[in-house]
Amino acid sequence: MSGDGQPEGKTYTVGRGDSITSIAKQHGYLWSTIWNHGNNAELKSKRANPNQLVEGDELFLPPKGSKGVSKPVDATHKFKIKGEPARLKLKLESLGEVRKNEDYTLAFGDIIVHGKTDDLGRIDEIIQGDVKVAKLMLNNATETYNIDVGGLDPISEITGVQHRLSNLGYECKGDRGEVGDATRKALLAFQRKEGLDESGEIDDATRARLDERHG
């Protein structure tokens, strides 16, 4: 409580795999309530996309108020908790070709969803806000991919570059936050495929093309 008897907010440190939706659901907020609070203005200007928080970022969680609703006594009432659904959006390609109209299975938590990619190879599914990992299965489950739902760092971060490279099939295993041998090999392969200068380094042109290919 503050000095005037009002509840106080608190600071939450973003952990690995956290997303704005998972944090909001865990603590009982709408994600927009957190993101649009004035105390988060500095972080909001730094991370233009709320879905690209970085481990170690600090979010202010505002105080919660209470709301009263008048209802007759001696009766049963149903209350619906409002929330904002999260969406998982993917675009599937293989060797530069769009994987259109392809059957897929998506598993997250205790939910399994079956669907088909659209003409542009896209998947768009509603998921629970606190989901951090989903499993994507293709070709009758002969291809299986673990998708880190809340773990995509901004492309300005080394980890953001590494995650995007890995999602596109250029593995950076063993490297996290540092440009090691695996990351240089992945960068060279990506740059060669995209007709870029094969430097093995994270330059502006590579970041721009990676953002174009992955988002």
UniProtKB/TrEMBL annotation:
PROSITE patterns: LYSM. Residues 204-215 have a biased composition (Basic and acidic residues). SUPFAM superfamilies: LysM domain (SSF54106), PGBD-like (SSF47090). Residues 10-61 form the LysM domain. Residues 195-215 are annotated as: Disordered. Pfam families: LysM, PG_binding_1. InterPro entries: LysM, LysM_dom_sf, Peptidoglycan-bd-like, PGBD-like_sf, PGBDSf. SMART domains: LysM. This is LysM domain-containing protein. It comes from Hydrocarboniphaga effusa AP103.
